[in-house]
Specification:
10 helices, single chain, Quinone Oxidoreductase, Chain A, domain 1, 7-stranded mixed sheet, alpha/beta, Rossmann fold, 2 domains, about 25% strand
Length: about 375
């Protein structure tokens, strides 16, 4: 039978506040899972969707925890009563043999509100089974909701995309929820130093609780120059200049300035050495920056992107849960603010205006 749900809807008309709609979710199709939600993350990427022109109303949210209410006939990895994560990347390490339909809801007036894949700003949701991951029974149901995006995107970029190893030096530009997760992963994997770059001393102090060993305030200095000052190295580069810079750098913002800074902060290549430094673009870009191609060429630097931390949720989520249990991934302090579903506009406003130190969540239960 249909499931009643309250869902946050972004109106098609630009500039209008989100509204809460009461809808009926349909019975699950063969590969669908209906989930009663515990909590959902409020991700910065949803601001881009809110400010992007659209052809219909939209439903948002792509990281949550909940309990399975019903499953389709072809779903076998979860059952009603199971606790689960909802995420936006396919759960398995095996490439899916199909593309799921976008989740959507039918409103009282018959209008559809569509998603890019899943929606979790709702007290109940329906999602394709490939986006539903079993959750340990001992896991808290609130702070773990951000594993499905913030953690897997930031920590995954460090662990999977870049392959950071013990003893490597790391710089992370932007210490919101994703950047803090990246810092935690770098520290857990044994990187040193782990340099956090942001514009606020308050945020940099917070970053020191999540794996950073050094903070660089980009509002007070040139962060690229400061990173090179902090990371001197033996040897000379191709032009006979002293070498410096980090082994790995991550842009967790996507701003024009940070995209342009992330590769120059990498270490210079020592003359005749077989070594590569890697810059990873993690944040969603909002502009096309100028890239110093000569710097990439002369020092054989690698510049790459990372979507969702190159993650496979069924493989990676247990790793993050182990880090959480050990205290290496401090989700309890990373989640800094909670909102009810009816406060969704306040949650969006707080995120947009920089009032969230780590990650905020919606709590339903």
């Amino acid at each position: 039978m249909p499931t009643s749900a309250r869902v946050a809807v972004v109106p098609q008309e630009m500039g209008q506040p989100l509204r809460i709609e009461s809808v009926e979710l349909p019975d699950p199709g063969p590969t669908d899972v209906v989930v009663r939600q515990f909590a959902s993350g409020v991700c910065h990427s949803q601001l881009h969707e809110i400010h992007t022109p659209r052809a219909s109303d939209v439903v948002l949210g792509h990281e949550s925890t909940g309990e399975v209410v019903a499953v389709g006939s072809e779903v076998s990895h979860v059952a009603p009563g199971d606790r689960v994560f909802v995420t936006w990347l396919p759960r398995s390490t095996q490439p899916p043999d199909r593309r799921p339909a976008m989740a959507q809801v039918t409103q009282d007036d018959g209008a559809l509100a569509t998603s890019l894949g899943v929606f979790t700003w709702a007290d109940h949701t329906i999602a394709d089974e490939m986006f539903v991951v079993p959750m340990p029974d001992d896991a808290p149901t609130d702070v773990t909701s951000i594993i499905g995006c913030a953690v897997m995107t930031g920590a995954g970029a460090v662990m999977n995309t870049a392959g950071v190893t013990a003893g490597s030096s790391v710089a992370v530009f932007g210490v919101g929820g994703v950047g803090l997760s990246a810092l935690s992963a770098a520290k857990t994997l044994g990187a040193d130093p782990v340099i956090a770059v942001d514009l606020s001393e308050e945020k940099l102090d917070f970053a020191m609780r999540h794996g950073a060993t050094i903070g660089v305030n980009a509002s007070e200095c040139d962060p690229v120059a400061r990173i090179h000052e902090l990371t001197p190295r033996d040897g000379l580069d191709l032009m006979g200049a002293p070498c410096s810079g980090v082994d790995f750098a991550f842009d967790c913002i996507g701003a024009e300035a940070t995209i342009a800074q992330v590769a120059p902060s990498l270490r210079k290549k020592r003359w005749a050495a077989d070594e590569r430094a890697v810059a990873v673009l993690v944040g969603i870009p909002v502009a096309v920056p100028t890239i110093d191609i000569g710097d990439l060429l002369m020092h054989e630097k690698h510049l790459t992107g990372s979507i969702g931390g190159t993650s496979h949720p069924e493989r990676d989520f247990p790793i993050y849960m182990d880090w959480y249990r050990r205290g290496d991934l401090d989700l309890d302090s990373l989640v800094t603010q909670r909102f009810a579903l009816d406060e969704i506009n306040e949650a969006v406003d707080a995120l947009e205006n920089g009032r969230i130190a780590g990650r905020s969540i919606l709590v339903f239960d």
